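Sequence and structure are no longer studied apart. To make this concrete, we show below a single chain and its fold as tokens.
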Amino acid sequence: MPERSPLSALPACFDPLRARPLRALAALRLSCATSVTTSPGRQRSAVRRCADQLRFTLIAEASDVGVSARKTSPFERPALSPWLQRPHAYEADVWSHVDRAVRSVQHMTELIAWARRHGRILVFGMPEDGFPLVMTPLSGDSVVQRCVDLARDAQQEAETISARLTSAHAALRETGRYGGGLVPFGYRKAPHPSGSGWCLAPDPDTAPLVRSIVSDVESGRSLLAIARDLNEQGVPVPRDRHAQLQGRSMGGRRHGRDFDRFRWTSGTLSKVLRSPTLMGHRTHGGQTVRDELGAPVLIGRPLLSDAEFDALQVTLRARSNGTHRPRRRTTALLIGVAHCQGCGGRMYFAARKGYAYGDYLCRATARGEVCPAPAGMRSDWLERYTLDRYHQATGKDGRAVREGLLRDGVRVTAAKGRRGGGPERNHGPDTARLTFTIGEPSDSRWDH
């Protein structure tokens, strides 16, 4: 029997011998990256192999590292999502395998619907078959069912792995062993005294710093001032310190922005100082894990005694003035859309007591930064301006929601206002301070 060619999966309307080869996007995804991982390279090679077999031209790469396919759909991933919003830029998406694209039947169904709606091709590498699985807008039910079946297999595999990890971590919590995850600030991983597994030991570089921070808090210094000092001294935040201990580079992506390293904020510092891990306790969900007799399960030598930790909590509660409460999910329209011109950071909504509207404000200080020109504007003014410009630019009618604005790449930048002015300042926004754009993701050219 002659060997099957992957080109046979393409209908005549996608003739690979046409004058212009079909443009393809390489899509990579990895749940967790370490300094020794080779998965992105293997995925890249597999994608190139598929493209060569189908005679596609790879124009760019969307690489989502540290992104779980079980928790996020393709339309929610930082690198891939902007490309899915502009399908006119290419004809095909190529993954090295189905589980690199989705681990959910629902997500596969959504992806297939998107491909058919926009007339795009989905390609999944199938190394076990020797040729890729290709789904075109004209593919029959058998190809669609094959895609769904593979997604179901990937979903079941993910659920099995998750159940095993949950069970393993529960057992490790009960025995005081370190089961992975973010190492608490002030500690580092060390061999368990039993000779089996790992526990935590004070980190000689950061444990003394924890005691110094506690002393500063007890002396009356604000968390914001301490955080500013830590940033000036170049002290890595817990996430970056964990990356250092793992041999990985610091920084990463947050709120759609890439950072070489993250910065201390009063919130980050508060989380460290309120954690029972400072007493050597094993925690889960921020709470102390206890044994059958109700005693705390210890995972390492304490950095603070119980009495010192309790005194610290009294000080922090007195500082919070009753404001330390669970974070509520915002419903503000322009979160992620409105940005400050002074620092480029997001603007956040702040309510005005007794008013139907609030304000969008630069919150650079909450990120541990100093903005040279912090912007602010009444929420109703900024929202009305944004929606007016959005409807003019897109021709869309009806009520807009934040998800739709973000999906269309809407960005509004506000500059700092002037002091003074007459009664006209109360009539509406100074639009000279505002810039409206509908952005497109920058091309990340495929590097051969």
In short: The radius of gyration is 26 Å.
